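Q: I'm building a small set of examples for a reading group on sequence design. Run inverse folding on the following structure and report the sequence directly after it, with nothing in between.
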């Protein structure tokens, strides 16, 4: 791991980090695309922190308005001073432009199309026109970094060609098994570094990765699920109320149902829940058998 990697607390992603850094160095706006939970936001914020520039964050929401992005006039101040600059409350876009900072938009394609269009002149001509206020020009250093989930995800909006043409695209996918295990171990290093803990990390990652390619799973789980499984398993073992397999199974049954989507064989919600529990039990047995087998090989 390089010096900059240690500073960023980022496991792997050397190629993606280099791409984003190069884009920012060249003064380009960057769009990070990838499934939920692959670390788009983390990577973006880590690279932004290297620039030591003011950062203004927007989280994608269908209810987010054009005025909230650019700014609005405060009614009481308008009564006192009229539509004056002092009456204007700058939104994150205008703040970033005026300070030469970075506008970070988390899940850009969840913003309404009208809000997306407000960005066009800002990132293309580096200026916007605010009604009754006039022209706002961006200072040097102003950049936009955004993330988006793939188009097939629910609650996403199609980005126009005009918007896409103003961004450089960096794709993030799931990381390797070794890197995901390293992420779990790094995140939970305060808890312990025993052989049992390493086994928990390997089992949690293997089970999470299994969900991504299983024929009955429409939407698999990310590294977030592996982290939750590992944390809860270790907590249950620390309480001393159950053995390893029971602790791991209980953790999986709590962490996975909200993070995966399994095809239904039954219309009944109760029957479907039973099917899911049975499937999770099968996965746990399969994964623990594999992990135990690998552990025995290492000892011999």
């Amino acid at each position: 791991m390089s010096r900059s990697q240690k500073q960023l607390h980022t496991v792997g992603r050397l190629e993606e980090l280099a791409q984003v850094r190069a884009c920012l160095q060249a003064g380009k706006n960057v769009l990070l695309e990838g499934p939920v939970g692959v670390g788009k936001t983390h990577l973006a914020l880590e690279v932004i922190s290297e620039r030591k520039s003011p950062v203004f964050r927007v989280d994608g929401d269908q209810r987010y308005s054009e005025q909230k992005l650019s700014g609005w006039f405060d009614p009481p101040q308008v009564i006192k001073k009229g539509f004056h600059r002092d009456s204007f409350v700058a939104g994150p876009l205008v703040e970033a432009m005026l300070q030469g900072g970075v506008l970070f938009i988390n899940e850009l394609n969840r913003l309404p199309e009208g809000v997306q269009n407000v960005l066009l002149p800002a990132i293309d001509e580096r200026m916007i026109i605010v009604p009754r206020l006039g022209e706002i020009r961006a200072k040097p250093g102003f950049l936009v970094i955004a993330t988006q989930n793939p188009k097939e995800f629910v609650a996403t909006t199609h980005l126009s060609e005009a918007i896409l043409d103003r961004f450089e695209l960096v794709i993030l996918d799931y990381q390797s098994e070794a890197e995901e295990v390293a992420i779990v171990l790094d995140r939970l290093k305060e808890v312990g570094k025993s052989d049992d803990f390493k086994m928990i990390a390997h089992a949690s990652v293997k089970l999470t990765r299994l969900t991504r390619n299983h024929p009955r799973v429409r939407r698999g789980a990310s590294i977030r699920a592996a982290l939750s499984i590992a944390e809860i398993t270790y907590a249950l073992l620390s309480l001393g109320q159950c053995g390893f397999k029971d602790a791991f199974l209980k953790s999986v049954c709590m962490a996975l149902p909200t993070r995966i989507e399994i095809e239904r064989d039954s219309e009944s919600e109760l029957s479907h829940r039973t099917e899911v529990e049975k499937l999770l039990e099968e996965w746990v047995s399969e994964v623990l058998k594999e992990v135990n087998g690998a552990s025995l090989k290492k000892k011999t």
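The chain has two domains: 3-171, 177-299.
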